[in-house]
């Protein structure tokens, strides 16, 4: 009995260490990924770039990250989750420290694209790693803490350069943000325990295509992939151009003060943790539906040119987005059959592809029709998200019904002995 308790305590300590390490991974990854978002107006001023061109500093990072996610996920299936995550975090931190030295916008954008490739290892593997190492009833809560780390990382990656801009150029702002991300990388690497549930798999092209084919044939997972695309696209679009709106008329706020808007990311931190717990209690589809409703309300509230309503709307939109992302992430891991890493990588591929494509092209809508045009575009994405949620719910319900039917199916009873004897006689 004592041995059992000791083993249980060790398991709890192991899972707690995993959760904290992945929290640190979320910090460093998202601080690096979105450190350029607060710099966009400064980059436009420094290089004479349009908002859509400057936004490539964010879109190229997430776009190349999306392209690298599936190959990196396949590599992790062969050599191990922890090796890929550690290598990815260290490479991204080194590249981040070099970005402030970029002599031109073109080189800066190229460096951000390379950093996106390097960053891919953490988000591509983290969801599968948690599912393998924790799983069960604790997966939703662990996923919530990981996503909470991404929200704080995203907040720090925006706030740190925004505050630095008040006293220095964009180069110093990027440098300070990169140093903070590097410190979080050291924390993550020192804390991450080795895998227990990992089983190596072949990583050939045929194997990878086979692993990807199964989730792509699942209607519910396809809907969740589409949900990730539209939600992340809308979310990044709002934050990409929020700074332009608040620094221009009728607000005219200084950049350092505009940077405080990113404190609203803390709403996403709380929403992620709460959503993770709620998914284990009331179900993922309910949490997703409530989160989408909060996002839609927040989007509408941002329309009036009043700083109070804009901040309230962004707060609600942020909380709803991270609640939806947490529930959808856990749902992918639960709905996937076979290789969860493949399903997770496809989800994240769609997630970051939406950030790159929608976040970049939304600048056209903002340039032509202002904030109202941007809101209408994001609103259209919200309608699509609601339809995709309905498809996922139907597919999940069907899977549960089929599983229940299999469990209720009567087992084949053995034949009586006299029938075996009769069969044997006929056979002779």
Provide structural commentary.
The structure is a single chain. With 428 residues, the protein is mostly helical. It has one domain: Growth Hormone, Chain: A (Up-down Bundle), CATH 1.20.1250.20. 82% of the residues lie in helices and 0% in strands. It is built from 17 helices and no strands. The chain is globular and about 65 Å long. The C terminus is likely disordered.
Provide the succession of SSEs: HHHHHHHHHHHHHHHHH
Largest sheet: none
Number of strands: 0
General shape? globular
- CATH top-level class: Mainly Alpha
CATH architecture: Up-down Bundle
Give me the CATH superfamily: MFS general substrate transporter like domains
Whole-number mean pLDDT:
83
Which segments are poorly predicted (pLDDT under 50) over 5 or more consecutive residues? 406-428
Number of self-contained structural domains: 1
Residues in β-strands, percent: under 5%
Describe the SSE topology.
Layout: H1 2-33, H2 40-47, H3 51-54, H4 56-79, H5 81-98, H6 105-119, H7 121-133, H8 139-164, H9 170-191, H10 205-216, H11 219-247, H12 255-259, H13 265-279, H14 284-301, H15 307-335, H16 340-408, H17 417-427
Helix pairs in contact: 1-5, 1-7, 1-8, 1-9, 4-5, 4-6, 4-7, 4-16, 5-6, 5-7, 5-9, 7-8, 7-16, 8-9, 8-13, 8-15, 11-15, 11-16, 13-15, 14-15, 14-16, 15-16
